[in-house]
Write a structure and sequence with these properties.
Length: about 350
């Protein structure tokens, strides 16, 4: 039987029971009426795409917002987690007071990604993550989402979820993510993984993760932004030529390496490249949002997805200096699109 390890909080208050049987999940969710945050860990069996048998996995989740509000699952990139909202949330700008996903009016659900090691499989697929999300919804007694908002890897998982469980979500909002990994982006990630593996062999895994992240950052951002920010001439130092972007790259790489294990990075990077969804299998009304400067998810792929989707679909294209990372940067413009998409959805209360 699934086991729900739940904790809830309102200001400094908390509930003492850390483990609740899944059959009492309705009571646990009902407690959210008197608390703003409800989170915990769920243990449930999953059948990995690349596994030989079902395996019990532990999934971390977080639910923020009034229990009576429409529920929206929000999924980010491979470095995102269940902490979507709150002071340290990765999408604070959209979930804060006045944001498109203001947690005073929306019930926001986030989960942590599973990796291949947790699944006991050679690789993890976006459909494995979709299966995990469905399990969390079951345990929390949420029959249907008002919307699923996914960005980057989260958009890929959202497409997989919509293809797997179309009746469980009223609208999909997919930002900077398509039905496949583009070959150019896949090539960049292949080099990143080889950097990490080489560093692991050499005994300096953290350095490998940092360098892989630096290469990733160049793909996340646009040539236009880099041209504006780092136009200064290179300098000659005792260590060799140093270009203007290197301090920025060094900081990004070191920060990422402090919080990301190399094996997990490789597994989730591979998961992006394994992602394949037939557009016609997505039978959920969908809003696609792309960025004209995105090097990783070109507009041609989003247009192909829109044409082939098995349900009504609209595509919005934004111009931004920030490329793929615009979903984290263009708060105002993106927020307006999110509000419009959510308003189109028939209200669905879990």
């Amino acid at each position: 039987m699934s086991l729900l390890d739940a904790s809830t909080s309102r200001a400094s208050a908390c509930f003492d029971d850390p483990a609740l049987i899944a059959s009492t999940a309705q009571r646990a969710v009902a407690q959210a009426d008197v608390c703003e945050v409800h989170e915990g860990h769920l243990r449930l069996p999953l059948q990995p795409v690349h596994g030989t048998a079902a395996r019990e996995v532990r999934i971390a989740w977080r639910l923020h917002g009034p229990a009576a509000a429409p529920c929206v699952a929000v999924l980010g990139g491979i470095s995102a987690d269940r902490q979507v909202s709150g002071p340290t949330g990765w999408w604070l700008q959209q979930t804060c007071e006045g944001g498109a996903l203001d947690t005073r009016h929306w019930r926001v659900l986030g989960i942590d990604w599973l990796d291949a090691e947790q699944l006991g499989a050679p690789a993890v697929e976006t459909s494995d993550q979709a299966q995990a999300l469905a399990g969390v919804l079951d345990a929390l007694c949420i029959p249907r989402l008002h919307a699923l908002v996914g960005a980057s890897y989260g958009a890929m998982v959202g497409l997989a979820f919509a293809a797997r469980d179309p009746r469980r979500v009223a609208r999909l909002i997919a930002i900077a993510g398509a039905h496949r990994s583009h070959p150019l982006a896949a090539a960049l990630r292949a080099v990143q993984r080889e950097i990490v593996r080489l560093a692991l062999d050499g005994g300096d895994a953290a350095r490998g993760v940092a360098l892989a992240r630096q290469l990733a950052m160049i793909g996340y951002r646009s040539p236009r932004e880099l041209g504006k920010r780092f136009a200064a001439a290179p300098t000659l130092t005792d260590a060799g030529v140093r270009v203007a972007a290197q301090d920025w790259l060094d900081a990004a790489g070191q920060s990422f390496a402090r919080r990301f294990e190399p094996q997990r990075f490789v597994a989730l990077s591979e998961s992006i490249d394994l992602h394949r969804i037939a557009p016609e299998d997505v039978r959920v009304p969908t809003t696609l949002i792309g960025f004209g400067t995105d090097q990783l998810v070109p507009l041609a792929d989003l247009c192909a997805l829109q044409r082939g989707l098995g349900a009504p679909c609209e595509l919005h294209v934004l111009d931004s200096d920030y490329g793929h990372d615009a979903f984290l940067k263009e708060h105002v413009t993106l927020g307006a699109l999110l509000r419009a998409a959510l308003a189109q959805t028939e209200t669905c209360r879990a």
